[in-house]
Specification:
The protein contains four helices and no strands. By secondary structure, the protein is mainly alpha-helical. α1 packs across α2.
């Protein structure tokens, strides 16, 4: 079992994924590089997953459109470097995206 310090760090990372790069997020209104890198990555990946997953209350977006949405929020909600890394990973097929019929 991980030690307490490791669990606290995991909690800090998970608890910071609602921070926004521009500092308007929560719970601590952190901004930019003050948000842990893993939290910034988690935020982008979580948003992408939420946009491309169908639920009972919304249709899923195509991966292409989800990438456009991420780009639109780069620098405000998301770290632009992390968004670009996500885009590069999908273009280089390091990340396999689900195939959809939607544009």
């Amino acid at each position: 079992m991980p030690e307490y310090a490791q669990m606290a760090e995991i909690g800090h990372i998970a608890g910071s994924d609602h921070e926004r790069y521009d500092g308007t997020g929560y719970p601590n209104r952190l901004s930019g590089e003050n948000i842990p890198l893993l939290s910034r990555i988690l935020s982008v990946v979580d948003a992408f997953d939420a946009m491309t997953a169908a639920t009972s209350y919304k249709n899923r977006l195509s991966p292409r459109f989800a990438v456009i949405r991420l780009q639109q929020s780069a620098g405000t909600q998301f770290d632009s470097t992390v968004v670009q890394a996500m885009i590069n990973a999908t273009e280089e097929q390091f990340i396999q995206l689900p195939q959809t019929a939607a544009a």
